[in-house]
Structures are given as structure tokens and as C-alpha cells.
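comment on this one:
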Amino acid sequence: MTIWERIDKELAVRRMTWTALAVHLGLGRAATTNWKSKGVPAKHYHSIEQYLGKHPGWAQFGDDAPDRDIPKRPLTALAASLAELLDTIPESDVKNRSRIFAEVLRLVGEVDAQRQAKPASSESSRKLPS
């Protein structure tokens, strides 16, 4: 499935139009019409994903995007700071920015899981054997 087809399918499911997407992106209708034959420019992937409520990497990988298993929850202060730093990566490098962001979210999730597991494991080590 091409990126255009993935977006087109999602727009149809949500009963949204390419015109509405173009307006959201600040583009003319002709720009999105040309994408069918010329391809969707990578610089718009992130904005399209946000508009459709999809996760980073969805435009390229669909539901097989690297961060598909990351639970959706508010960002921690550290993750928000990292996201701000990632926003300094040029728009022209949006593919790497999406991958890096997905990896940061995955790592933050692992750290959170380890922090939550740590008190439980230290409590069990304090118990006396029966």
C-alpha cells in the first residue's frame, strides 16, 4: 500500500476529504491532487499523522510503525523536553525525526516500566522467607 493509498483509506473511513486535509496543511487542493501521481512529500507526514490522530511513523509504516505498542498517555517532562529537541531536526529530515521520536517514546516507556517494577521487586526482597 502506498502512503497516498493509506491516507486516502483513512480519510474515507473518517468521512474526511482531501480538501479538508489540504486546508489543514495550508495548501491548495491541487497540491494534494498531485500527490496521487507524484507521492506525498515526506515533510507533511507528521502533520498528516497528527490531523488523522495517528502515531508517528503511521504514514510510512501504517499500523506496523515502530511505536505501535507504546501506550498513549501524556508525555513526561523528560519526554516533552526530548520532543522539543527533536523539533529542531530540519523538516527535510522528517523520516529520521519520526523514527527517533518513536524510539524515544519506546525508551521512556521502558524506563517508566522499570521504575514501576523496582518498588515491587524491592518489597519482595524485604520479605522474610516462610
About this structure: The chain has one domain: 3-126.
